[in-house]
Amino acid sequence: MEVGAGERLQAVKVAEHHSDNVLKMTKQSKEENRAAYETPETKYTRSLAQMSASCDSRCVVLNTGARMPLVGLGTYKLRGSEQVHRAVDAALAAGYRAFDSAAVYSNEADLGRALKELMPKYCLTREDVFITSKLGPKDQGDRALEGALHSLSELDLGYIDLYLIHWPGTQGKVVDDKRNPGNRAQSWATLEDLHAQGKLKAIGVSNYTLAHMKELIQSCKVRPAVLQVEFHPQLCQTELRRVCAEYGVCFQAYSSLGQGDLLTDPVVLEVAKKCKRTPAQTLLRWAVQQGVPVLPKSSNPDRIKDNAELFDFSLTDNDMDTLSALDCEHRYCWDPSGVA
Protein backbone atom coordinates (compact mmCIF):
# COMPACT_ATOMS: atom_id res chain seq x y z
CA MET A 1 0.00 0.00 0.00
CA GLU A 2 1.43 3.41 -0.99
CA VAL A 3 2.26 5.88 1.85
CA GLY A 4 1.22 9.52 1.35
CA ALA A 5 3.64 12.49 1.50
CA GLY A 6 2.12 13.74 4.79
CA GLU A 7 2.57 10.35 6.43
CA ARG A 8 6.19 10.13 5.23
CA LEU A 9 6.94 13.61 6.67
CA GLN A 10 5.39 12.64 10.01
CA ALA A 11 7.47 9.46 10.10
CA VAL A 12 10.65 11.46 9.49
CA LYS A 13 9.80 13.87 12.34
CA VAL A 14 9.14 10.97 14.72
CA ALA A 15 12.46 9.36 13.77
CA GLU A 16 14.37 12.64 14.25
CA HIS A 17 12.74 13.17 17.66
CA HIS A 18 13.64 9.63 18.70
CA SER A 19 17.22 10.14 17.49
CA ASP A 20 17.58 13.39 19.48
CA ASN A 21 16.34 11.65 22.62
CA VAL A 22 18.79 8.79 22.12
CA LEU A 23 21.67 11.25 21.72
CA LYS A 24 20.67 13.15 24.86
CA MET A 25 20.35 9.92 26.85
CA THR A 26 23.72 8.71 25.54
CA LYS A 27 25.42 11.98 26.46
CA GLN A 28 23.80 11.93 29.92
CA SER A 29 24.84 8.32 30.40
CA LYS A 30 28.44 9.15 29.46
CA GLU A 31 28.51 12.05 31.92
CA GLU A 32 27.09 9.84 34.69
CA ASN A 33 29.57 7.07 33.92
CA ARG A 34 32.48 9.52 33.93
CA ALA A 35 31.40 10.96 37.28
CA ALA A 36 30.99 7.47 38.74
CA TYR A 37 34.33 6.08 37.60
CA GLU A 38 36.55 9.17 37.38
CA THR A 39 39.71 8.77 39.42
CA PRO A 40 41.42 11.67 41.23
CA GLU A 41 44.14 11.54 38.57
CA THR A 42 41.75 11.86 35.63
CA LYS A 43 39.78 14.56 37.46
CA TYR A 44 43.03 16.48 38.01
CA THR A 45 43.95 16.15 34.33
CA ARG A 46 40.49 17.34 33.25
CA SER A 47 40.67 20.31 35.65
CA LEU A 48 44.02 21.34 34.20
CA ALA A 49 42.62 21.07 30.68
CA GLN A 50 39.66 23.26 31.64
CA MET A 51 41.98 25.83 33.20
CA SER A 52 44.16 25.78 30.10
CA ALA A 53 41.08 26.33 27.96
CA SER A 54 40.33 29.48 29.98
CA CYS A 55 43.80 30.86 29.22
CA ASP A 56 44.95 32.55 26.10
CA SER A 57 48.63 32.33 25.22
CA ARG A 58 49.64 35.15 27.55
CA CYS A 59 47.28 35.25 30.52
CA VAL A 60 45.24 33.15 32.91
CA VAL A 61 41.69 33.89 34.05
CA LEU A 62 41.41 33.95 37.84
CA ASN A 63 38.34 32.74 39.74
CA THR A 64 37.37 36.41 40.12
CA GLY A 65 37.12 36.74 36.34
CA ALA A 66 40.23 38.96 36.20
CA ARG A 67 42.92 38.21 33.63
CA MET A 68 46.42 37.88 35.05
CA PRO A 69 49.44 37.82 32.70
CA LEU A 70 51.40 34.59 32.61
CA VAL A 71 54.66 36.54 32.86
CA GLY A 72 55.24 39.26 35.41
CA LEU A 73 58.33 41.07 36.62
CA GLY A 74 59.47 39.95 40.06
CA THR A 75 60.82 42.91 42.00
CA TYR A 76 62.49 41.13 44.92
CA LYS A 77 65.87 42.80 45.59
CA LEU A 78 65.03 45.79 43.37
CA ARG A 79 65.81 48.70 45.66
CA GLY A 80 65.91 52.45 45.19
CA SER A 81 63.87 54.64 42.85
CA GLU A 82 66.48 54.68 40.09
CA GLN A 83 66.90 50.90 39.86
CA VAL A 84 63.16 50.26 40.09
CA HIS A 85 62.41 52.92 37.45
CA ARG A 86 64.99 51.45 35.04
CA ALA A 87 63.67 47.89 35.49
CA VAL A 88 60.02 48.92 35.09
CA ASP A 89 60.86 50.93 31.97
CA ALA A 90 62.65 47.94 30.42
CA ALA A 91 59.80 45.62 31.41
CA LEU A 92 57.07 47.80 29.92
CA ALA A 93 59.10 48.15 26.72
CA ALA A 94 59.41 44.36 26.56
CA GLY A 95 55.66 43.87 26.95
CA TYR A 96 55.37 43.10 30.66
CA ARG A 97 52.08 44.18 32.16
CA ALA A 98 52.32 42.49 35.56
CA PHE A 99 54.55 43.46 38.48
CA ASP A 100 55.03 41.56 41.73
CA SER A 101 56.00 43.38 44.92
CA ALA A 102 55.63 42.90 48.68
CA ALA A 103 55.77 44.90 51.88
CA VAL A 104 59.02 43.16 52.86
CA TYR A 105 60.65 44.14 49.54
CA SER A 106 60.55 47.80 50.65
CA ASN A 107 59.90 48.95 47.07
CA GLU A 108 56.13 49.41 46.86
CA ALA A 109 56.37 53.21 46.80
CA ASP A 110 59.12 53.18 44.16
CA LEU A 111 57.15 50.73 42.02
CA GLY A 112 53.97 52.76 42.21
CA ARG A 113 55.83 55.97 41.39
CA ALA A 114 57.66 54.39 38.44
CA LEU A 115 54.45 53.05 36.96
CA LYS A 116 52.63 56.38 37.26
CA GLU A 117 55.54 58.09 35.53
CA LEU A 118 56.02 55.48 32.80
CA MET A 119 52.51 54.33 31.87
CA PRO A 120 51.82 57.43 29.73
CA LYS A 121 55.08 56.78 27.84
CA TYR A 122 53.63 53.44 26.69
CA CYS A 123 50.06 54.74 26.25
CA LEU A 124 48.87 52.64 29.19
CA THR A 125 46.29 53.28 31.89
CA ARG A 126 45.98 51.81 35.38
CA GLU A 127 43.65 49.13 34.03
CA ASP A 128 46.35 47.90 31.65
CA VAL A 129 48.72 46.75 34.41
CA PHE A 130 48.35 44.03 37.02
CA ILE A 131 49.91 44.74 40.42
CA THR A 132 50.56 42.14 43.10
CA SER A 133 51.74 42.86 46.62
CA LYS A 134 51.85 40.94 49.86
CA LEU A 135 51.12 41.30 53.56
CA GLY A 136 54.32 41.15 55.61
CA PRO A 137 54.69 38.44 58.28
CA LYS A 138 55.06 41.15 60.94
CA ASP A 139 51.48 42.25 60.18
CA GLN A 140 49.97 38.77 60.34
CA GLY A 141 46.88 38.72 62.55
CA ASP A 142 45.53 41.82 64.28
CA ARG A 143 47.82 44.16 62.31
CA ALA A 144 46.66 42.90 58.91
CA LEU A 145 44.40 45.88 58.23
CA GLU A 146 47.20 48.32 59.01
CA GLY A 147 49.61 46.37 56.80
CA ALA A 148 47.26 46.13 53.82
CA LEU A 149 46.30 49.79 53.99
CA HIS A 150 49.99 50.69 54.14
CA SER A 151 50.62 48.72 50.93
CA LEU A 152 47.72 50.52 49.25
CA SER A 153 49.11 53.86 50.38
CA GLU A 154 52.68 53.10 49.34
CA LEU A 155 51.71 51.94 45.85
CA ASP A 156 49.21 54.78 45.51
CA LEU A 157 47.58 53.25 42.44
CA GLY A 158 43.99 53.31 43.68
CA TYR A 159 43.68 49.56 44.24
CA ILE A 160 45.79 46.40 44.21
CA ASP A 161 44.95 43.73 41.63
CA LEU A 162 46.15 40.84 43.79
CA TYR A 163 47.11 40.90 47.47
CA LEU A 164 48.62 37.84 49.12
CA ILE A 165 49.40 36.70 52.63
CA HIS A 166 53.15 36.37 52.14
CA TRP A 167 53.89 33.66 54.73
CA PRO A 168 51.76 31.27 56.81
CA GLY A 169 53.62 32.14 60.02
CA THR A 170 53.98 35.27 62.12
CA GLN A 171 57.18 37.24 62.50
CA GLY A 172 58.57 36.99 66.02
CA LYS A 173 56.87 33.67 66.75
CA VAL A 174 58.37 30.19 66.45
CA VAL A 175 57.17 28.21 63.44
CA ASP A 176 55.17 25.73 65.52
CA ASP A 177 53.42 28.44 67.58
CA LYS A 178 49.81 27.38 68.05
CA ARG A 179 48.64 30.95 67.43
CA ASN A 180 49.68 30.84 63.77
CA PRO A 181 46.40 29.33 62.48
CA GLY A 182 44.36 31.96 64.29
CA ASN A 183 46.56 34.75 62.97
CA ARG A 184 46.22 33.45 59.42
CA ALA A 185 42.45 33.30 59.77
CA GLN A 186 42.32 36.87 61.11
CA SER A 187 44.49 38.11 58.25
CA TRP A 188 42.30 36.36 55.69
CA ALA A 189 39.11 37.83 57.15
CA THR A 190 40.69 41.30 56.84
CA LEU A 191 41.61 40.65 53.21
CA GLU A 192 38.07 39.43 52.53
CA ASP A 193 36.68 42.72 53.88
CA LEU A 194 39.05 44.83 51.74
CA HIS A 195 38.20 42.66 48.74
CA ALA A 196 34.51 43.35 49.31
CA GLN A 197 35.30 47.07 49.39
CA GLY A 198 37.05 46.82 46.01
CA LYS A 199 40.43 47.88 47.35
CA LEU A 200 41.92 44.43 46.72
CA LYS A 201 40.53 43.08 43.45
CA ALA A 202 41.70 39.54 44.17
CA ILE A 203 43.22 37.93 47.26
CA GLY A 204 45.41 34.91 47.74
CA VAL A 205 48.29 33.37 49.64
CA SER A 206 51.97 32.59 49.23
CA ASN A 207 54.13 29.80 50.62
CA TYR A 208 51.15 27.83 51.90
CA THR A 209 51.51 24.06 52.19
CA LEU A 210 48.86 21.50 51.35
CA ALA A 211 47.69 21.53 54.99
CA HIS A 212 47.52 25.34 55.08
CA MET A 213 45.52 25.39 51.83
CA LYS A 214 43.00 22.80 53.02
CA GLU A 215 42.56 24.72 56.28
CA LEU A 216 41.90 27.95 54.38
CA ILE A 217 39.55 26.45 51.79
CA GLN A 218 37.44 24.85 54.52
CA SER A 219 37.01 28.08 56.50
CA CYS A 220 37.09 30.98 54.01
CA LYS A 221 34.16 33.00 52.72
CA VAL A 222 36.13 34.11 49.65
CA ARG A 223 38.17 31.39 48.02
CA PRO A 224 41.81 32.37 47.31
CA ALA A 225 42.42 33.38 43.71
CA VAL A 226 46.13 32.52 43.70
CA LEU A 227 48.69 30.41 45.51
CA GLN A 228 52.23 31.65 44.84
CA VAL A 229 54.97 29.17 45.73
CA GLU A 230 58.44 27.99 44.71
CA PHE A 231 58.12 25.90 41.54
CA HIS A 232 60.69 24.54 39.09
CA PRO A 233 61.68 21.14 37.65
CA GLN A 234 63.31 20.08 40.93
CA LEU A 235 60.16 21.01 42.91
CA CYS A 236 57.09 20.10 40.86
CA GLN A 237 54.57 20.34 43.75
CA THR A 238 52.23 17.87 42.04
CA GLU A 239 49.79 17.35 44.91
CA LEU A 240 49.59 21.07 45.69
CA ARG A 241 48.85 21.79 42.03
CA ARG A 242 46.16 19.12 42.03
CA VAL A 243 44.38 20.71 44.98
CA CYS A 244 44.62 24.16 43.40
CA ALA A 245 43.11 22.85 40.16
CA GLU A 246 40.34 21.10 42.08
CA TYR A 247 39.30 24.30 43.86
CA GLY A 248 39.90 26.77 41.03
CA VAL A 249 42.95 28.41 42.60
CA CYS A 250 45.62 29.67 40.20
CA PHE A 251 48.98 28.09 40.99
CA GLN A 252 51.74 30.67 40.42
CA ALA A 253 55.50 30.13 40.47
CA TYR A 254 58.37 32.03 41.97
CA SER A 255 62.06 31.09 41.89
CA SER A 256 61.57 29.39 38.51
CA LEU A 257 65.34 29.36 37.96
CA GLY A 258 66.18 27.81 41.32
CA GLN A 259 67.90 31.04 42.40
CA GLY A 260 70.11 30.64 39.33
CA ASP A 261 71.44 27.18 40.18
CA LEU A 262 69.29 25.45 37.55
CA LEU A 263 70.81 27.56 34.79
CA THR A 264 73.88 25.33 34.85
CA ASP A 265 72.11 22.00 35.32
CA PRO A 266 73.30 19.61 32.55
CA VAL A 267 69.77 18.43 31.72
CA VAL A 268 68.48 22.00 31.46
CA LEU A 269 71.45 22.96 29.30
CA GLU A 270 70.84 20.04 26.94
CA VAL A 271 67.15 20.88 26.48
CA ALA A 272 68.00 24.57 26.01
CA LYS A 273 70.60 23.71 23.37
CA LYS A 274 68.08 21.55 21.54
CA CYS A 275 65.52 24.40 21.59
CA LYS A 276 68.13 27.04 20.71
CA ARG A 277 67.01 29.06 23.72
CA THR A 278 68.65 30.27 26.91
CA PRO A 279 68.42 28.05 30.00
CA ALA A 280 66.27 30.74 31.65
CA GLN A 281 63.81 30.82 28.74
CA THR A 282 63.67 27.01 28.77
CA LEU A 283 62.85 26.85 32.48
CA LEU A 284 60.26 29.60 32.24
CA ARG A 285 58.67 28.00 29.18
CA TRP A 286 58.44 24.69 31.06
CA ALA A 287 56.20 26.45 33.59
CA VAL A 288 54.03 28.61 31.30
CA GLN A 289 53.47 25.68 28.95
CA GLN A 290 51.70 24.05 31.91
CA GLY A 291 49.60 27.18 32.45
CA VAL A 292 51.66 28.24 35.47
CA PRO A 293 52.34 32.01 35.66
CA VAL A 294 55.97 32.99 36.35
CA LEU A 295 57.73 35.99 37.92
CA PRO A 296 61.31 36.18 36.64
CA LYS A 297 63.28 38.88 38.39
CA SER A 298 66.16 40.89 37.02
CA SER A 299 67.46 44.45 36.95
CA ASN A 300 69.27 43.88 33.64
CA PRO A 301 67.24 45.27 30.68
CA ASP A 302 68.53 42.60 28.28
CA ARG A 303 67.62 39.75 30.62
CA ILE A 304 64.25 41.31 31.35
CA LYS A 305 63.57 41.31 27.61
CA ASP A 306 64.85 37.74 27.11
CA ASN A 307 62.72 36.42 29.99
CA ALA A 308 59.57 37.69 28.29
CA GLU A 309 60.25 35.93 24.97
CA LEU A 310 58.45 32.70 25.82
CA PHE A 311 55.55 32.58 23.40
CA ASP A 312 57.22 32.00 20.05
CA PHE A 313 58.43 28.49 20.82
CA SER A 314 57.31 25.41 22.70
CA LEU A 315 58.90 22.38 24.30
CA THR A 316 58.14 18.89 23.01
CA ASP A 317 56.38 16.41 25.27
CA ASN A 318 59.70 14.62 25.63
CA ASP A 319 61.45 17.85 26.65
CA MET A 320 58.73 18.54 29.22
CA ASP A 321 59.01 15.04 30.64
CA THR A 322 62.82 15.25 30.72
CA LEU A 323 62.72 18.42 32.79
CA SER A 324 59.93 17.16 35.06
CA ALA A 325 61.98 14.04 35.76
CA LEU A 326 64.41 16.28 37.69
CA ASP A 327 61.83 16.52 40.48
CA CYS A 328 63.45 15.67 43.81
CA GLU A 329 61.47 18.01 46.11
CA HIS A 330 64.49 20.27 46.45
CA ARG A 331 63.89 23.80 47.72
CA TYR A 332 66.16 26.76 47.14
CA CYS A 333 64.00 29.12 49.18
CA TRP A 334 62.08 29.04 52.43
CA ASP A 335 60.44 25.82 53.63
CA PRO A 336 56.99 26.48 55.16
CA SER A 337 56.30 22.83 56.03
CA GLY A 338 57.10 23.34 59.72
CA VAL A 339 54.70 26.27 60.19
CA ALA A 340 51.80 25.24 62.44
TrEMBL record:
Substrate binds at H166. It comes from the Eukaryota. It holds the Pfam family Aldo_ket_red. The active site is at Y105. Gene3D superfamilies: NADP-dependent oxidoreductase domain (3.20.20.100). The record marks K134 as: Lowers pKa of active site Tyr. Residues 71-326 form the NADP-dependent oxidoreductase domain. One of its GO terms (molecular function) is oxidoreductase activity, acting on the CH-OH group of donors, NAD or NADP as acceptor. Keywords: Oxidoreductase. Belongs to the aldo/keto reductase family. PANTHER family: 2,5-DIKETO-D-GLUCONIC ACID REDUCTASE, GLYOXAL REDUCTASE-LIKE. This is Uncharacterized oxidoreductase YtbE isoform X1. It comes from Betta splendens (Siamese fighting fish).
